[in-house]
Amino acid sequence: MTAELLAVAPRAAVTIAGIEATARIEARPGPGGATVLPVLEGEGPLAVRRIRGLYGEGRVALVGAMSAPLGGDRLAVRADVADGARLHVAATAATIALPGQSGQPAHYDVRLTVGRGATLHWLPEQLISANGSDLRVTTRAEVAEDAVLVLREEQVLGRSGEAPGRLTSRLTVTCAGRPLLDQELSCGPGAPAGWDGPAVLAGLRALGQLLVVRPEFTESPVRPRMLGDRASLTPLAGPAALVTAVAADALAVRRILDEALELLLGEAADGR
Fold this sequence. Notes:
Blueprint: E1 13-14, E2 19-29, E3 35-41, E4 46-51, E5 58-64, E6 74-81, E7 86-91, E8 95-97, E9 106-114, E10 119-123, E11 127-129, E12 134-143, E13 148-157, E14 166-175, E15 178-187, E16 206-213, H1 216-219, E17 225-226, E18 231-235, E19 240-247, H2 250-270
Main location: cytoplasm
Subunit structure: UreD, UreF and UreG form a complex that acts as a GTP-hydrolysis-dependent molecular chaperone, activating the urease apoprotein by helping to assemble the nickel containing metallocenter of UreC. The UreE protein probably delivers the nickel.
Subcellular location: Cytoplasm
């Protein structure tokens, strides 16, 4: 068995406004085609746990060690997948954005890097925007030309029976140094008018998207289509496809995205 370094993370910084914490994950190719995880660091509410992988894949779970993000918190996750490595990142529970005492918005910053011939599955659980919260989420992914990225985002506006908080989410992806996707959505109190109208959420409270980047899509882009009444599959100008879905609840969104992922992986294998 190859020894791996599990870094001991320092404590999160606590400021007047809130907590500042960063989690770091590094995946590297190891002997026999396996992936090793030389860096697993977590701070404060961001705990990182190694779990059993399949077929040499590195597998990690993000664990919420305390309630976060609260207003004023600044949380960050960094995941670096080196050339030829394979990493699967999931979470053990949904993330709930809650109001804090500072009156400031919370920030959650995710940075992903996927090297040549590498694979990253980034599959966290739902993000729930509780009433009174204000969260700004930024996700940036840099993907090499022949890498694979499967990225899922799911958001729920309000807990059962409550109004949502303010949620602003931006996703930016580059492939081989070229822009692939850059989009932003803002919902809840104070968001631009129309976010709850028929052109956006139409009164629904759960939304999600699935981005799949695969080199096979360069020569064989997917066919645009509707996936039921409230989801769409769109090819991007690059080796990628984007699924966007809205639904009444998180369970329905997850079902749509799971079925879409199975469809996309099947089409990539068939070269369609």
